[in-house]
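Regression test case RT-17, inverse folding.

Input:
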């Protein structure tokens, strides 16, 4: 499904979005050739811009501004805890037309030695509930494993939850010490020029990523690359028990104490 989005763009020379693809996440498909080889949907010179670990003050807004200036779109994998700290920033991500997926509750390695299957499931589901809480809407059924550590039990679980999993093709390594804006651009472009296309992994949590992005997007455009936006066919329903856990964490009063019919609570007085 191709949608041209340049018409509403104030920048006539913007990178823009060349096409939008809609993903049917039934059965938990995987994307990104570092781990998943099945769905090779990008054509030559096409890229997907992805950002992990937000939302975060200053850094996420810097990323959003760079994307907005080029009228292009990304895919954000939000950490649940960060979403509850800064819901207003995550709502901005969604409001600006980007896709919001999830990235666990607290960014732990789901393949860690002491990680049980239940603990891993709790991390995943609590993260989903937290992002939903922050957005005031269901997130996309898109998930990226922290540190790209694919827990086999959770991979199977996502098959039952119909959640698509994202690895990467081009890692910016923007989280590494010494990852200056210049280094980030060089890392991405060197790998991308070798592959010719791919899903790019970045972090809106990292300060230097926001600083690198305007020049990186300019390099992509100069190199003839085009941005593909990924959306999901459906949204992801959170599970009630994890919604309740988030509400308790947030000390939010739950609605279960109020059983009055809606007509006695809300009345139209002017139309």
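Golden output:
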């Amino acid at each position: 499904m191709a949608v041209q989005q340049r018409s509403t763009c104030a920048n006539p020379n913007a990178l823009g979005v060349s096409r939008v693809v809609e993903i049917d996440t039934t059965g938990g498909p995987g994307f990104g050739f570092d781990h998943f080889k099945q769905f090779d949907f990008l054509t030559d010179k096409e890229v997907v811009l992805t950002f992990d670990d937000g939302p975060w003050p200053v850094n996420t807004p810097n990323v959003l501004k760079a994307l907005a200036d080029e009228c292009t779109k990304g895919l954000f994998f939000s950490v649940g805890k960060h979403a509850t700290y800064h819901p207003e920033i995550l709502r901005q991500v969604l409001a600006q037309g980007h896709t919001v997926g999830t990235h666990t509750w607290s960014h732990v390695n789901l393949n860690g030695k002491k990680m049980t299957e239940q603990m891993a499931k709790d991390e995943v589901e609590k993260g989903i509930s937290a992002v939903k809480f922050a957005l005031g809407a269901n997130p996309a059924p898109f998930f990226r494993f922290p540190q790209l550590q694919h827990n086999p039990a959770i991979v199977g679980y996502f098959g039952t939850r119909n959640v698509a999993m994202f690895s990467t093709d081009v890692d910016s390594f923007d989280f590494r010490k010494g990852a200056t804006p210049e280094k980030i651009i060089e890392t991405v472009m060197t790998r991308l020029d070798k592959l010719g296309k791919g899903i790019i992994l970045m972090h809106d949590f990292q300060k230097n990523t926001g600083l690198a992005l305007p020049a990186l997007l300019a390099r992509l455009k100069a190199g003839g690359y085009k941005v593909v936006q990924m959306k999901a066919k459906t949204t992801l329903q959170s599970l009630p028990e994890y919604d309740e856990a988030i509400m308790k964490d947030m000390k939010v009063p739950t609605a279960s104490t109020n059983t009055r019919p809606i007509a006695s609570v809300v009345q139209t007085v002017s139309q």
